[in-house]
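User: Teach me something about this protein's shape.
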Amino acid sequence: MKPAVLDTIAQLIEHRFGVVAEQNRRFDWPTGSVTADLYLPAPLHCVVQLDDPNHCTRQRAATIRAYSPDTPLNYDVRRYLADTRDGDTALAEADARADLLPLQYGLNPTVRIRYDEITEPLDDCIIALLAKRFAYHAGTTFQKMIDTAGAKPHSTDHWRNL
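Assistant: First, the predicted structure itself:
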């Protein structure tokens, strides 16, 4: 399912913004690297991570609780904090590094999509999820986006023509 979802996101972004998304983009840190599932270049300038059940664990919840209160996040944190399943600490730490990429690289907040948010039809689901994620930060964190109505999603209606 992951390749299909990432391909759908990449196609929608290319159609709407005329930019080519990059899958498995590597970002280097002094303490290691992060491989983003999908990097969306300007005007969005953010990464998208698709989280399967292995990313939705109590270890992941613990990393989120350790964030500074002003860490910019672009997903439903409450859902991740409610996860109680046991998981891999190393994976949770890698997810935390991906969430902190914006601070290191000047990106917009990491967009996370959980496996349990994906429904059919896939195109409609992805459009709705992206509209929600991007509209949430329009005018705040996503101010770095190109300052035109065509590139800065102001509402969920903006994405209906994809």
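Now, about its shape. The radius of gyration is 15 Å. The longest strand covers residues 32-40. If you'd like, I can walk through any region in more detail.
User: That's plenty for now, thanks!
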